[in-house]
Amino acid sequence: MTSVTGAAAEAEQVFGDSSAEAANIAPVKTADRIETLDFVRGIAVMGILFANIVAFGQPFNAYIFPESFLVDPADPGGWQWIAQFVVIDGKMRGLFTLLFGAGMYLFMERTWARGGTRWLQMWRLFLLLCFGLIHFFFIWMGDILAMYGLIGFAAVACMRWTAKAQMTVGLIGYVFGALLYAVMMTFPYLIADTSIGAMPDMAELRAEMNSGIDTALADDAIRTEAKQSGDYGGLVAHRLSQDAMMPIVNSLLFMFETLPLMLFGMALYRLGFFSGTFDRSKLVRWGWIGVIAGGLCHFGLGMIVKGAGFSFYSANAALLGWSPLPRLAMVLGLAALLVAYSPAWSGWLAERVRAAGRAAFTNYLGTSIVMLFVFHGWALGYFGELNRPQLYLVTVLACIGMLAWSKPWLERYRYGPLEWLWRCLTYRQLFPLKR
Question: Most CB atoms within 10 A, among 149, 241, 304, 433?
């Protein structure tokens, strides 16, 4: 991979003189921000931690497969698993991806107005990719920033399309991806968990499926040993040697979900969705329809998984293969409701949520760093020791922390710490941080 220094030199040639460009193109001023974007982003960054907390504090496969827990999950009947599946899983990431697409277009809209080009966006995405790879290899392997950086390069090529074209291609791509995921994930489930796999000519294939579970759990066991023993160097070495291709694999796997949602975000921003031009009553009506209909579909899928005993392949099929279409309804529905209701939410809590959204980059990476200290053996060492309710309690405390620090910090400083660093690297200038 090209080094940051080398890429900066290349970008210097592409962009021309950096000081001249920075004089014409500057980061977004506080007064120019769209507060609705900050509010939705604040909800999403806290919600993402609720989705990820199980994989932080238990083996990675415990996120989907409850039997991977190293302690009793304290989830009788699996209803907490189902609740997270219905309300959280994929929805917060979906909101975040919508906002990322909207933010990409907002950035370019202002860049074009000041004479810049899409190369500045490409450089910005490259920096995000670098942040994501550092996050993945050295902090937590559930990173999404590297995926956003890689898939964002494809989204840049679509930025000059009309909003209608972005929405249409996004919808076609998303539906195609949903059907593809359904086929990919249903087949293993049918072989491993249904009577189809019990047929004589399927015995060998079913054995291979079961072997795949053993392999996944054995890989988790290596990571668990490193985390519990405090062998941080061994954990990083394992990621570098065994998981090095995962950021690329994840990007390819989620391409047909992530890229369409980025295009939706661009189109919705251009149509005024986030700035209050849509009819509020329609947003509320269609938002609730999307959330309720999508939620009921998710609940039905969760009951199928429950009927299968929360098996490895039924859970994977539900989360990755069967839920994308109802998830889209919920993501768009949640976005509509948050956009409709957020202007009226002006109390102290809403202000702190918006502040958390303004510092979402810092909060996202910052919580991963905090979880290193909470769970790894070289620090507090709680990895594998907390059940599901206790992990949710850790999440609540972390969200309180996000709400507590973000607003006071932004009253004194222009940006969150990592937002400021990203801006300085993007424009290759040192911008003032303190107000």
Answer: 149
